[in-house]
Amino acid sequence: MLFLHIFIVIIAFFLMKKRMLKIDRIMFVIIVCIPFWGMLSALIVSFMILTERVGVNNKNLENMKSSDESGDTIVVEAPESENVVPLQDALIMDDPSVRRSVMLDVLMSGTKSYIPVINEARMNDDVEVVHYATTAMVELSKEFELKAQEYSARYAENPEEDGLLEDYISFLEQYVSSNMIQGQLLEIQRNTLMQLLAEKVSRNSRQEDYVSFINALFAEKQFSIADTVLSEMETSWPKDERCIKLRLRYYYETGAGNKIKEIVDTVKNSGNYYSREIRDLVDLWDIGNKEEQRA
Asked: From CA 1, how far away is CA 3, in angstroms rounded?
C-alpha cells in the first residue's frame, strides 16, 4: 500500500506540473497526507474546474499561480466590469456559482485591498470558496512576511533613507491589522511598529505623527506612555482640537469619569470657539454625565 501511495503522489505531482491536474499546492499536500481519498478529492476538484462548475475565471486563477511561481506579485490590476458583484454581497447569496465566480474575480484583482473580506470568506459554508480564500491568504502571508524582512533589512542598513520610515510604518500598520499573523510574530511586528512611530515623532514633531502614535498606544493599552506623549502634544499645540478628543478617550479608557466632566465643563464655559464636532462630542458626554447622575 505504501508503494502504491508513493506512486500515486508522484503521478499527481507530474500531472500538476503539466497542468493536466487542476490543483494547487495545498491540494497536493492533501494528496500526500491522505492516501487514496486525497487523490480522489483532487480528481473531483480538477474535474469541476475543467467542466467550469466553479465559476468563469478558472484560467485566470491558473495565470495567477503561474505568475506567483515565477516570482511576480499576485496583485494585478482589477478587471473592469459593470457586472462585478461585490464580494461581501456575494458571500451571502444562495447561488454557489456566483460566490465562486466572484471569489475568483477577487483573487485576480488586487487581493490586498480585500484582506478583511477574504478573512470573512474563509468562514463561508461553501468549501470551494473557503479553499480559494485560504489559498489567497497563504500566498498573501508569504508575500507580506518577505516584504517585512525586506523593510527590516533596508531600515537596519540605512534608517535615514528618504521616505523609508513612512513606507515601513504604513506597511506594518496594514500587516498587523490584517489578521494574517498571530502569537509571537504578531507581537514582534507590533513592537517594531511602536518603535517606528516613536522614532517618527522624535524626527518630525508633527501633529499627525503624534495622533498616530497615541492611537497606537491606546490600541496596545499602553496608557501611561500615551498620557506622556499626549501631554507633549498638548504643550506643543494647545489649540489643536484633536488634543481634546484624545484626552477624552484617554480618560474614558482609564475610567476617569471626573476628569471627563472637567473637560466638558471647561469647553462649555470657556467662551472659546470650538468646531461643531467638538461641541457635539462635549454635548454627548454632558448628556451621559447627567443621565448617570439621575440614575
From this structure: 6
Question: Is residue 110 within 8 Å of 92, Cβ to Cβ?
Answer: no
The 10 Å Cβ neighbour count of residue 31 is 25
Nearest-angstrom CA–CA distance, 21 and 273:
70
The domain limits of the chain are 1-53, 211-295
- 222-281: per-residue pLDDT in tens? 999 999 999 999 999 999 999 999 999 999 999 998 898 898 888 888 888 889 888 888
Alpha-carbon distance 133 to 117, whole Å? 9
Q: Would you state the cell numbers that stand for residue 151, as one nine-digit string?
A: 523593510
How many CB atoms within 10 Å of residue 167? 13
Rounded distance between C-alpha atoms, residue 24 and residue 29, angstroms? 9
pLDDT digits 0-9 by tens, 9-23: 787 777 767 667 666
The whole-angstrom separation of Cα 119 and Cα 111 is: 11
Nearest to 40 by CA among 5, 2, 3: 5
Pairwise CA distance, residues 182 & 272, whole Å: 47
Instruction: Report pLDDT for 143.
Output: 82
**CB-CB contact of 23 with 42 (8 Å):** yes
Closest CA to 165 of 125, 192, 133, 138: 192
Q: Is 35 exposed, middle or buried, given 0-12, 13-18 or 19+ CB atoms closer than 10 A?
A: middle
Nearest alpha carbon to residue 196 among 142, 246, 154, 140: 154
Distance CA 65, CA 71 (A): 10
Radius of gyration over every alpha carbon of the chain, rounded to an integer in angstroms: 26
Residues 98, 84: Cα–Cα separation, whole Å? 10
Range of 29-38, 124-133, 274-283 with top mean pLDDT: 274-283
